C-alpha cells in the first residue's frame, strides 16, 4: 500500500518564508496627517505636443470629516495622496487647428463668451497651490509665471505630469485579433480606487456606432456621467455611465425643452473637438460646439463640475438624464428642490448578464435656476419637480436653466445606499469648496499615489507610457461605502463597515490576478487589507465565490475562480490584516465536495476527476488550467497559515493541468472520456479555450513551469518552441501559433525563458513588447485594459519584476527598463530599490546582480523581498552573460502533489454531488464496497499469486484512486524491495483502457510494464486476464440515488520483474489509449510469475 505525498514546496527551492506578520506596515490606520507645504510651484511637463490623432507606437472619513477626498474615516486626512497640495491656475483652451492630423471631421467649438482665444497649453499645466492646515484647506493663488515654470534643464516631468489619460481611448480597426484592439479607457476625473468616475462618453454620427465608452474617433459626446468601468469588454454593454449631464444652449419653446430626451436623445448630443480637450489625473476639460466649456473633477464619492455658458446662446441649460445609464434601465426617479436635484436609477450590471444595481445621486448648484422642469417618457413638463421613468431608457430627467453666460458649478454626491447617503457624501467631501480647490486635492491624491514608484532614466515617451499605466492600474477596485460607513451588501442588506476601513467592489478576477492585484498590494498594503476583507465579507454574504462581482452584484464572467487567486496573491505580498482564517475556511468549504456552494462550472466533474472533459464545451480545457491555478493559490494561503493537510490536498489539485496534457503530442490538449482530441486545431480557441488559442494556453502553468518543460520534452525542444511562439507577440486567436500578449493567458509566456535558463531572452521579449505594442497615442494600448490588468502587466515589465507565480510573492526577474526605480509602499516602511544604470542606453542585458549587497545568479527573488523590501543592484552589459543560466538559477516550480491520488471515485449512499468516477458523475458505493471486502484499509489478496492489495484508507470526499498522468509511487522504501512481479488494483471507465507504467530499480535501471483494465461495468467480459476482486450492485448517482448496474474492481495478472534487482518505485502511465484508467493500489509479489503476464 502507498499514498502519494503532496506539499506546496517548490521542486527547485526549499525553505520559503512564512507570511510576514510583523508590524512593518504599521497598525490598521496608518495614514499620516496632512502637512502644509506652502510655496511649491507646479512644474508642468515640457515638450509634449497635442497631436493625439497620430499613432506613436514604436517610439473612512469621520462622520463629520471635512476632507474633500473622503477616503478615510475618523481622521482629517487624505489617504493615498502625498502631503503636497497643488492647485489649478486658470485653464486655457488650445488653439483649434494645431493638430498634425484630424481623425474625423468635427465642428470646431466656439470660444465661450468672456474668454479670449487662448494659447496652446500642455495637458496638466497650471494648477492652484493650496495649503493644508489642521483646520482644513486654505486656497491661495499662485502667480502664473511660477505655476507655469518649466522643469530645470534635463529634469524629467513629474509622475503626475507624465500621465496621458487619452492613451487607450482609440479603437484600432485595422487589427482583428479576437478581442478589440482598444483599451476602452476614458479621460475623465477620478481618484485612486474612487467611487466616482466623472467622464464623458461618445457617439459617432457617421455610422451611429455607440459602443458605450469613450471612443477617440467619435465626433459627439453623450454627456458627462458619474461612473465608468475602465477597460472592460462587452462592447455596448459596458455598464455604468450613470446620471449623465448634457449642457444645452438651444431655445426653450413654451418654457420647456423642444422635445423629450426619451424620444430623441441624440438631438441633445454635443459637438466637440479633441483640440479643445484637456485631461490629467483627476481633471477633464473640453470646449463644446455650442460654446460651452465643461470641466470635471472629483473626490472619492463626489463629482464637481463647472460649466461656462456663452452669452450669445438661446439658453444656458443643463439636462440631467437620470435614466441615461449605459445598460438596460429598470426604473428611475428624479426630484428638484431649491438648487438641489436628486434621484436614483436601477440599471443592469456589466455585460447585462448578471444582476442590476441601484445608484443614487444628490446634486447642488451654486447658481439659482431661472427655470426648470422634468421629462417623463415623451412628456416635458415645465416647472415640474419630479418624474419617474419606469423601465425606459432616458425615461426620466430634469432640465435646469441659468442666466445666459453663467458659469455654473455643481457638486454631486454618489451613493449605492440612498439619496441621503449621496447628500452626506457630497457635504463631507466637496460642498463649500471651489472647483479649483477640489481639483487641487485630486492632484494631490494622484501625486501621492503615482509617487509610490519613482523612476529615473528613459525617454519622455517611456515615462508617459509607464506612469499612464500606473495610473490606469489604480482605477479599480472601488470604494463602495459612504462616509457614514454604510454600504449595500451582496445579500441586499444595508451594512456598515468598521471605522477606519473601506469596502471595495468591482473585480475582474480572471484579469487582475495576473498582476494588478499584486501591484495594488505592493504599493498600497492597507488597500490590500481592505480588499481582502471585502472579499471575505462577500463570500459570507453570498455563501459562495463569484468571480466578477460588480458593485453588490455577485455575478460570473469569464472562466476560473480567480478571486481566490487574487486574495492569496494580496496576502502573499503582506496584506494580512484581515480575516485570513475565515478566507481559507470559505475556500475549503466552497471548493470541496459536495460541489453545491461553488460557482465553478463543471465543478463536480473537476473536483471528482481532476479535469473538465471537452464535451462540456464552454472553454472546458482552459477551465481545467484556471481551476488548477486557483487551487494552487488556495494551497499557498493554507501553507502560510500552517494548514498543512489543506495545503497538500489543494496542491494535488494544482497539478490537474497534467490531466489535460497529452504525452504523445507533448501539448496541452482537449481531452474526452475516451482520450485526447488530437484532431483539435490548437491554433484556434474553438469551444475549449477562453479568449486564446491552445498554443497560448499551452504555457499557462505558472505554478509548475519546470514540470511543464519536462513534460514538453526538455529545455532544448521547449526553447525552440517558445522562440517560435514569441516571434509573433500579439497574433490573436485565428489560426496562429503565436502569442497574444495583449490578452491575459499570454501574460506569463515571456517569463518561461527564466525557467529555460535564458533570462536574456525574457528581457529581449519584454523590450520588444513594451515598445512595439504600447504607445503614447490614443491607440497606445493594444487590447482591453480590463480594470487595469493590461496596464499592470506593462508596469511590471518595466520594473524588471513579475509576480507570475500567482498566489506567491516570488518575483521573476528581467532587465529593468529604467536606470533606477524606487518603490515606497504607501503608509509602510517597505521600500524596494532597483539600480540598473545603463539599461536605457546601450547596456540592455543583466551581467550580474546583487540582492541586498550579496551576489546572486538566480533570476528570481523569494517572497521576503516583496514583503519586506530590499535593494537589487543590476550590472548591465551590451551582450548577454551567464547570469541566470545555471540549473540552480531558475525560479521555483511547485510540483508538490504531483504523485497524489487525484480522483474521488467512491461516495456514501445518499450523498449528493459527492464524487465522480466516470465523468458522468457516477461513483462506487462505499457501503457496498465495505460489504464486498473493500473497507478503508482492507487487505485484498489476488488469489494465490502472492499479491495483496490494500484498499485506500480515505475518508468520504478524499481522492481514493489515481487517474494516471505519470505519478511516481514509492514501493520499496529506501533500500528497495526484491520482487518477481507487480500487479495493479483498478478498473477502467469508458473503457477498456491500457497504458504503460515504468518500474524503477535501485540501480537506476527501469522496466516498462503494461497496465490494462476492463471497464467497471463489464457484464461477463473480463479482458486482459483481469481478475474480479470486488463486485457490487448499484452505482451511486450525483442526485443521491443509485442504479442497479453491476460494478467490478479488478486485479491485473502480475507482470514479471527482474528478481535480481530491487524495486524502488513505479511511475504510472502517462495516459491511457482510450477510456480512463483508475488505479486504487499497486503491489509486488515474490512468487514465481508466468512470463505470459497480461
Q: What is the CATH homology-level superfamily of one domain? A: GH92 mannosidase domain
Output the structural class: alpha+beta
CATH topology of one domain: GH92 mannosidase fold
Q: State the distance separating the first and last CA atoms.
A: 22 Å
The quaternary state of the protein chains shown equals: single chain
| Main β-sheet, spatial strand arrangement | 3-4-5-7-8-9-10-19-14-13-12-17
Strand content: 15-25%
Radius of gyration: 32 Å
Mean pLDDT: 87
Query: What is the CATH C-level name of one domain?
Result: Alpha Beta
| Number of helical regions | 21
The tally of strands reads 50
* Largest sheet entry: 12 strands, antiparallel
Q: Fraction of residues in helices?
A: 10-25%
Task: Write the CATH architecture name of one domain.
Answer: 2-Layer Sandwich
User: Would you identify the regions where 5 or more consecutive residues have pLDDT less than 50?
Assistant: 1-9, 12-153
Amino acid at each position: 500500500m502507498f499514498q502519494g505525498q503532496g506539499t506546496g514546496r517548490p521542486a527547485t527551492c526549499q525553505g520559503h518564508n512564512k507570511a510576514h506578520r510583523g508590524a512593518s506596515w504599521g497598525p490598521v490606520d496608518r495614514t499620516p496627517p496632512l502637512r502644509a507645504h506652502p510655496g511649491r510651484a507646479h512644474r508642468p511637463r515640457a515638450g509634449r505636443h497635442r497631436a493625439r490623432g497620430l499613432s506613436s507606437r514604436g517610439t473612512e472619513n469621520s462622520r463629520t470629516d471635512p476632507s474633500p477626498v473622503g477616503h478615510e474615516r475618523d481622521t482629517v486626512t487624505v489617504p493615498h495622496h502625498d502631503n503636497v497640495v497643488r492647485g489649478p491656475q486658470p485653464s486655457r483652451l488650445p488653439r483649434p487647428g494645431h493638430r498634425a492630423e484630424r481623425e474625423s471631421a468635427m465642428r470646431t467649438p466656439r470660444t465661450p463668451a468672456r474668454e479670449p482665444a487662448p494659447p496652446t497649453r500642455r495637458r496638466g499645466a497650471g494648477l492652484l497651490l493650496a495649503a493644508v492646515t489642521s483646520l482644513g484647506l486654505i486656497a491661495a493663488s499662485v502667480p502664473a509665471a511660477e505655476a507655469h515654470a518649466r522643469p530645470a534643464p534635463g529634469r524629467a516631468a513629474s509622475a503626475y505630469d507624465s500621465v496621458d489619460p487619452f492613451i487607450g481611448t482609440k479603437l484600432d480597426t485595422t487589427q482583428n485579433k479576437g478581442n478589440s484592439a482598444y483599451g476602452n479607457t476614458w479621460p475623465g476625473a477620478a481618484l485612486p480606487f474612487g467611487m466616482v468616475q466623472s467622464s464623458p462618453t461618445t457617439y459617432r454620427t457617421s455610422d451611429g456606432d455607440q459602443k458605450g465608452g469613450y471612443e477617440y474617433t467619435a465626433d459627439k459626446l453623450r454627456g458627462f456621467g458619474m461612473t465608468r468601468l475602465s477597460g472592460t469588454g462587452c462592447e455596448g454593454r459596458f455598464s455604468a455611465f450613470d446620471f449623465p449631464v448634457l449642457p444645452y444652449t438651444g431655445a426653450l419653446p413654451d418654457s420647456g425643452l423642444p422635445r423629450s430626451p426619451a424620444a430623441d436623445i441624440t438631438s441633445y448630443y454635443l459637438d466637440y473637438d479633441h483640440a479643445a480637450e484637456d485631461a490629467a489625473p483627476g481633471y477633464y476639460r473640453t470646449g463644446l460646439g455650442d460654446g460651452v466649456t465643461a470641466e470635471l473633477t472629483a473626490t472619492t464619492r463626489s463629482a464637481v463640475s463647472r460649466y461656462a455658458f456663452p452669452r450669445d446662446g438661446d439658453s444656458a441649460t443643463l439636462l440631467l438624464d437620470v435614466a441615461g445609464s449605459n445598460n438596460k434601465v429598470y426604473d428611475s426617479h428624479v426630484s428638484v428642490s431649491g438648487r438641489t436635484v436628486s434621484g436614483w436609477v436601477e440599471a443592469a450590471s456589466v455585460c447585462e448578464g448578471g444582476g442590476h444595481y441601484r445608484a443614487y445621486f444628490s446634486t447642488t448648484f451654486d447658481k439659482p435656476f431661472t427655470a426648470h422642469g422634468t421629462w417623463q417618457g415623451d412628456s416635458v413638463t415645465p416647472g415640474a419637480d419630479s418624474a419617474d421613468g419606469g423601465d425606459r431608457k432616458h425615461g426620466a430627467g430634469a432640465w435646469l436653466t441659468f442666466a445666459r453666460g453663467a458659469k455654473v458649478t455643481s457638486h454631486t454626491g454618489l451613493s449605492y445606499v440612498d439619496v441621503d447617503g449621496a447628500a452626506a457624501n457630497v457635504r463631507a467631501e466637496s460642498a463649500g469648496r471651489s472647483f479649483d480647490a477640489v481639483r487641487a486635492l485630486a492632484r494631490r491624491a494622484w501625486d501621492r499615489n503615482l509617487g509610490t514608484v519613482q523612476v529615473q532614466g528613459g525617454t519622455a515617451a517611456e515615462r508617459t507610457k509607464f506612469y499612464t499605466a500606473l495610473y490606469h492600474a489604480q482605477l479599480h477596485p472601488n470604494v463602495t461605502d459612504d462616509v457614514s460607513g454604510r454600504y449595500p451588501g451582496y445579500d441586499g442588506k444595508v451594512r456598515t463597515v468598521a471605522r477606519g476601513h473601506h469596502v471595495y467592489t468591482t473585480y475582474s478576477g480572471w484579469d487582475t490576478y495576473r498582476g494588478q492585484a499584486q501591484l495594488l498590494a505592493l504599493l498600497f498594503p492597507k488597500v490590500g487589507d481592505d480588499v481582502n476583507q471585502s472579499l471575505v465579507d462577500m463570500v459570507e454574504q453570498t455563501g459562495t465565490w463569484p468571480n466578477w462581482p460588480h458593485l453588490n452584484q455577485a455575478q460570473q464572467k469569464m472562466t476560473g475562480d480567480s478571486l481566490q487567486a487574487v486574495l492569496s496573491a494580496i496576502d502573499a505580498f503582506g496584506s494580512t490584516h484581515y480575516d485570513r482564517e475565515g478566507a481559507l475556511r470559505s475556500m475549503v468549504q466552497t471548493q470541496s465536495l459536495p460541489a453545491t456552494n461553488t460557482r465553478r462550472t463543471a465543478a463536480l466533474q473537476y473536483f471528482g476527476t481532476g479535469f473538465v472533459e471537452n464535451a462540456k464545451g464552454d472553454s472546458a480545457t482552459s477551465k481545467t488550467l484556471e481551476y488548477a491555478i486557483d487551487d494552487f493559490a488556495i494551497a499557498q494561503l493554507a501553507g502560510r497559515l500552517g494548514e498543512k493537510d489543506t495545503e497538500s490536498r489543494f496542491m494535488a489539485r494544482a497539478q490537474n493541468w497534467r490531466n489535460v496534457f497529452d504525452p504523445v503530442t507533448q501539448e496541452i490538449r482537449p481531452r474526452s472520456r475516451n482520450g485526447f482530441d488530437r484532431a483539435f486545431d490548437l491554433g484556434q480557441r474553438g469551444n475549449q479555450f477562453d479568449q486564446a488559442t491552445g498554443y497560448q494556453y499551452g504555457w499557462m502553468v505558472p505554478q509548475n513551469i519546470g514540470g511543464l518543460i519536462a513534460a514538453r520534452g526538455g529545455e532544448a525542444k521547449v526553447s525552440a518552441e517558445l522562440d517560435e511562439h514569441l516571434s509573433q507577440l500579439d497574433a490573436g486567436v485565428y489560426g496562429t501559433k503565436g502569442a497574444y500578449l495583449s490578452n491575459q493567458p499570454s501574460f506569463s509566456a515571456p517569463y518561461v525563458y527564466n525557467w529555460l535558463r535564458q533570462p536574456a531572452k525574457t528581457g529581449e521579449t519584454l523590450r520588444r513588447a513594451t515598445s512595439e505594442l504600447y504607445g503614447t497615442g490614443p491607440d497606445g494600448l493594444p487590447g482591453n485594459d480590463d480594470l487595469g490588468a493590461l496596464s499592470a502587466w506593462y508596469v511590471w515589465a518595466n520594473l524588471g519584476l513579475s509576480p507570475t507565480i500567482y498566489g506567491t510573492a516570488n518575483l521573476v526577474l528581467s532587465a529593468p527598463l529604467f536606470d533606477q526605480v524606487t518603490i515606497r509602499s504607501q503608509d509602510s516602511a517597505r521600500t524596494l530599490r532597483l539600480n540598473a544604470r545603463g539599461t536605457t542606453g546601450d547596456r540592455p542585458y543583466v551581467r550580474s546582480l546583487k540582492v541586498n549587497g550579496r551576489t546572486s545568479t538566480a533570476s528570481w527573488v523569494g517572497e521576503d523581498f516583496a514583503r519586506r523590501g530590499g535593494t537589487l543592484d543590476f550590472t548591465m552589459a551590451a551582450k548577454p552573460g551567464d547570469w541566470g543560466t545555471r540549473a540552480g538559477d531558475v525560479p521555483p516550480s511547485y510540483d508538490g502533489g504531483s504523485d497524489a491520488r487525484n480522483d474521488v471515485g467512491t461516495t456514501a449512499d445518499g450523498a449528493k454531488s459527492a464524487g465522480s468516477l466516470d465523468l458522468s458523475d457516477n461513483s462506487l458505493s462505499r457501503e457496498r464496497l465495505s460489504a464486498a471486502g473493500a473497507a478503508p484499509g482492507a487487505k485484498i489478496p489476488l488469489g494465490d499469486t502472492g499479491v495483496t492489495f490494500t484498499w485506500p484508507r480515505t475518508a468520504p470526499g478524499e481522492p481514493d484512486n489515481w487517474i494516471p498522468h505519470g505519478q511516481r509511487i514509492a514501493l520499496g522504501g529506501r533500500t528497495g524491495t526484491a520482487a518477481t512481479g507487480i500487479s495493479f488494483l483498478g478498473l477502467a471507465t469508458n473503457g477498456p483502457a491500457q497504458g504503460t507504467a515504468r518500474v524503477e530499480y535501485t540501480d537506476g535501471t527501469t522496466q516498462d510494464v503494461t497496465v490494462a483494465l476492463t471497464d467497471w461495468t463489464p457484464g461477463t467480459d473480463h479482458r486482459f486476464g483481469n481478475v474480479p476482486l470486488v463486485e457490487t450492485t448499484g452505482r451511486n448517482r450525483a442526485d443521491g440515488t443509485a442504479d442497479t448496474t453491476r460494478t467490478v474492481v479488478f486485479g491485473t495478472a502480475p507482470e514479471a520483474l527482474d528478481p535480481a534487482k530491487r524495486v524502488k518505485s513505479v511511475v504510472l502511465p502517462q495516459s491511457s489509449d482510450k477510456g480512463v484508467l483508475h488505479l486504487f493500489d499497486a503491489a509486488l509479489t515474490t512468487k514465481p510469475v508466468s512470463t505470459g503476464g497480461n
